[in-house]
Write a structure and sequence with these properties.
171 residues, mainly beta, four-stranded antiparallel sheet
Amino acid sequence: MGKSTKFVMTVAGVALAGVAGVGVAQAATPVQSADSGAPSSCRPANLTTKITPDAASAGHRHYRVTLTAAPGTSACTLAGSPDDVKFYNNSSLKGVTTKPYGSQGTAVTFGPGHPVHFDIQVPSASKGASANRVVFTLKTPGGGVIPGDQEADGSLSVDAGTQIGPVQAGA
């Protein structure tokens, strides 16, 4: 087998790292503390997620998606509702589109010891479609996007009219 060469390049202000000949590159977010040198908590590889049922409200089911940063990562700033939200049941994509709700401009610090969460609000008029994975993109203040898809696993039911709340501090 041939020798692999590691590389790092920058595209549109985002560092990409990989191994030549392998065909895989990973994005490093530009939201990294300038003085820490630690990787950003916002990178998909540097956080864990979970979906749990939350208290229902009039006419809606709620699910909380909690993000927890890995130790040794640097804090980053998030804002607004996650974008490009897709729901899957095993590998089957559910055709549910979402809309954001709530204040989209509030900046929230995310990092070790500072978990964040967002709400998935689903109309409870019908049973909806079963899902066990949510794939989404996080946003920065001003509408920037954190490179890479985030994923969260957990049992939920989604339907037309599903809305996604903004990222908030706390688990």
